[in-house]
Amino acid sequence: MLNKIPKILSPELLKVLCEMGHSDRIVIADGNFPAQSVGKDAIVIRCDGHDVPSLLSAILTVFPLDTYVDKPALLMEKVPGDTVETPIWEEYKKIVGQFDERGEKAIGSIERFAFYEEAKKAYAIIATGEKALYANIILQKGVVVDGE
């Protein structure tokens, strides 16, 4: 165990976050996301008992978002005509705003199948037990500044 590290961050997940370099991406996926098939070339970390907001908050305590891109956090857009509500996106905006001065301006969105293609290039995918629909988010790592 370590001080000041959120307990939800497992040793495996901490190792992966440490291994990642500037501009590497990690996907935090909901329970419906095809993590194993999309993540054939990525490290897939199982966090089935956890929800995305809790993991997002914990990860952002140790993981800087990329300041060299406008939207270092990307959401999967709803399929046109899909009427499902996405209140979880409001949670993401609040969480990102706690850790990045750009707030919700740091969050973008991309079409569903484009999201899958971007996820295939990710360094890692975290498979969660999140039940909310369209709860997937890609984070792009920034530079760790000396002294932070």
From TrEMBL:
InterPro entries: RbsD-like_sf, RbsD/FucU_mutarotase, RbsD_FucU. GO terms for biological process: fucose metabolic process. It catalyses: beta-D-ribopyranose = beta-D-ribofuranose; alpha-L-fucose = beta-L-fucose. The keyword Kinase does not apply. SUPFAM superfamilies: RbsD-like. GO terms for molecular function: D-ribose pyranase activity; fucose binding; L-fucose mutarotase activity. Transmembrane segments: none annotated. It holds the Pfam family RbsD_FucU. Keywords: Isomerase. PANTHER family: FUCOSE MUTAROTASE. This is RbsD or FucU transport.
